[in-house]
Amino acid sequence: MCLPKTESPIDAHFDATFADALATYETYNKHHYRPNTYLHKWWGRRCGSTFRLILKGLVEDETSQSYYAGGGLAGKIILDPMMGGGTTLHEAIRLGASVIGVDVDPIPVLQARATLTRRPLAALQAGFDEFFAGLAEASGDLSRTHCPTCDEALPLWYALYGLRRRCECGEVLVVDSLIMRHEPNGTTLRWCPECGLLRNGGVHQCASGGVRIVEKGQRDCLQCRRPYQELTDTPFYARYVMLAVAGHCPDHGLFHKSPDWRDHAVQARANDRRATLALPVEAFRVVAGDKSIQLENRNVFNYLDLFSSRQLIFLDEAIRRLPDGDPIVRLNLGLLVSTSLEFNSMLCGYKGVNKRRAGAVRHTFAHHGYSFPYTALENNPLYPRRASGTLQKLFYSRIIRGRRWAAAPVERVLDGAKPAFVPVPNEQDVGLEVSTAAELSLEPRRFLLLQSSSVVLPIETASIDAVVTDPPYFDSIQYGDLSAFFRVWLRQLLPGAADWGYDQTAAAVSSERASSSDGHYVASMTTIFRECCRVLRPDGGRLIFTFHHWQPRAWAALTIALYQAGFSLVNRYTVHAEHPMSVHINNMRALTHDSILVMAARPSDEASRWARPATHDHHDSYRFTESCATFLGWVLEQPNLSAAHIEQLWNAALNGKEDDKSGVSG
Fold this sequence. Notes:
Elements: H1 16-26, H2 30-33, H3 48-56, E1 77-80, H4 87-94, E2 98-103, H5 106-116, H6 121-139, E3 144-146, E4 153-167, E5 170-175, E6 179-182, E7 188-191, E8 198-199, E9 213-215, E10 229-230, E11 240-249, E12 253-257, H7 261-274, H8 293-296, H9 309-321, H10 327-340, E13 349-350, E14 361-362, E15 376-379, H11 391-407, E16 410-413, E17 420-423, E18 432-433, E19 446-451, E20 466-469, H12 479-482, H13 484-493, H14 517-535, E21 542-547, H15 552-565, E22 567-576, E23 593-601, H16 621-637, H17 643-655
Parallel strand pairs: 1-2, 1-20, 2-19, 5-9, 18-19, 20-21
Antiparallel strand pairs: 3-4, 4-5, 4-10, 4-11, 4-15, 6-7, 7-8, 11-12, 13-14, 16-17, 21-23, 22-23
């Protein structure tokens, strides 16, 4: 049974203006502001600065309540029952709290363990150096090219490919643009449409035996007038033909060139070696979900087909060469290899055409789903320079930089025109892992990680000070489905590190439950919220989370779950969320604000405090988000509502109906 609430600092105050200002900056480059949280790819992370402010709202000591003051939550236990990217855990542990993180997917659990566990940088660096050297020795000869000026053998940086298509006249290669690159000196590298060779102005004589190239906008052959067809009967990686290679010569600098006979010979050797690999093919089978169905629609039924032969050989070697000594070093390196796949698959596109370019690789999940490039980029993960998506670059940015920041976190100050950061005293983004909830209170900064659903938690009743989370939306992107792209490899890299055979339908949002998504979501969230209510302390325990959505169905589903779990709204604050320049929401009807909802167990004698909003402004993200949160509070105060009544109320509110037919007045 939910117990009555008492006052908590965040009940009355939250500096939404300050939070909004910080989040506006952080949204552009979250991984720069919180590098220790970003070892592995995950989706839908919220701004760490916002969650720091939320947690600061739980600090009782006034001298520690400032955003820039260190600590303040020593002795407190914070739970995130749907931890995803781990933002709550990292922010709470910095403030001295002990934390519990729960997720059904193993990737969030492994990432939190790797990044929150203290390890000397020297140990991580030594492990990486040995690992990288072994990989380079085993497969580096397959990623070599030659300088077009001096003919010196050099590491391949990346290769560009065109997509094979056919018509009645034969095959063509389709690219995004015939222009490959605008050079700094004003010249333009472009592919010849008649033979496929790269040319840089001047007189060009087509090579014999070349291949025709067309841009993606040309869908029909100009000769036979028939549409080009993709070679869907061919393995995905073999649907592409190499058109350019890039490298860097110490004497002549960066170069791009058409592949010569040696480049093709190396690729042929890699293809031959691919056939000898002992990777368990069945373990990489695509299981169709809301997002992975996009693969099956292109006749891709196995994740192995998404990688070039060179990339596959690299992964096979990585599985066998991960160090066995320190399990945390092994975990970090296994996650590093896995997250590198986002930049090292044949789903990567090329974005290096423009003069002002931030790297050449358009990563696999640039659009929060599977997209299939015309100009594909085969990256070399073993390229020795710190280039985009290479192991060297990722190790530095995700591990070295992340751990340095974790040892001495900094926060942005808003004074002045130039970005400035200040150290936060007495904080660290590391802790000590424990195996039971009872051990959390023994000292600050302990963490418990559970790979499970939060419908039943191994936590004592009334033992948690606050639940701070970012719950999934009932129609949100299927992160569990997308993460299978990494999970099939992590299962081979780190077979004993997690329960890889877990029940994916246990997630509140599940591809396997799509046919009854609303009902499953409400049932799951109701049970989770009831568990949150059970474990929260009666003396000021709070459930705090962020939420936004346009649709009444989403708000109704959330409201039903909270209502049935016995929560009421204490306060709500509206802050900046995702910036519309984010690739996955640009040109979409996306809200740019979050509601921070502060909930408490609903007492039996609660007085009404929320007035029903008269209108909801669908043209203003801030006003819409704020009014929806207010309406949520009002609905939760109404007695004896059924799920159907709650749905009717939300439909009436957001669809503009005057008669809600619910029998509830304002």
